[in-house]
Amino acid sequence: MTLRDLSQQCSLSVSFLSQIERGLSSFSIPSLRAICQALNVSLPDLLVLSDGPGMAFLADPRPPEITKGDNQSYINLSDTSIKYRFLSGGFPGRQFEVLIGEMSPGYHNPPTSHEGEEFGFVLEGRVKFTIGEEPYALGPGDSYHLMATTPHGYEVGDEK
């Protein structure tokens, strides 16, 4: 697949994709989802392993196994202040993924939609979670579960 083909399938410019490929730019979660959809892979199948900003390559999914805390995959998206930790395995054919997203105070993710379901659980801090046009104040122990095709977004409070 050429960059032009990928560009047409994920609605991202050829120059932007080229910058990502060369390590000159990074991508957002919506851009990463679009790339995954165009490549017909799930987000955990496209683990971003980094030796520095923008350095990324495809990693093989892990076989089914117990994942120890010191062997979990991490993704840091350099254009956001989110660190993702994958808790679920990466075996082929899985139906869902479990991860922890650690977000910096004040981080804002505008409402977006994507395929699948989404479940969230607040470990600590405060989050204003919006589903459609309806905002919800969430704190430790609160959770949400929705069809991700419904626009949803969040804003992290001033504390972690």
From TrEMBL:
Query: Which InterPro entries does the record associate with it?
Result: Cro/C1-type_HTH, Cupin_2, Lambda_DNA-bd_dom_sf, RmlC-like_jellyroll, RmlC_Cupin_sf, TransReg_Diox_bact_type
Keyword check for Nucleotide-binding, yes or no: no
**One Gene Ontology CC term in the entry:** cytosol
- Keywords annotated in UniProt: DNA-binding
Xref: Gene3D superfamilies: Jelly Rolls (2.60.120.10), lambda repressor-like DNA-binding domains (1.10.260.40)
Residue limits of the HTH cro/C1-type domain?
1-46
Q: Which GO terms describe its molecular function?
A: DNA binding; DNA-binding transcription factor activity
Q: Which PANTHER family match?
A: HTH-TYPE TRANSCRIPTIONAL REGULATOR, TRANSCRIPTIONAL REGULATOR
Per its record, how is this protein called by name? Answer: HTH cro/C1-type domain-containing protein
Organism of origin? marine sediment metagenome
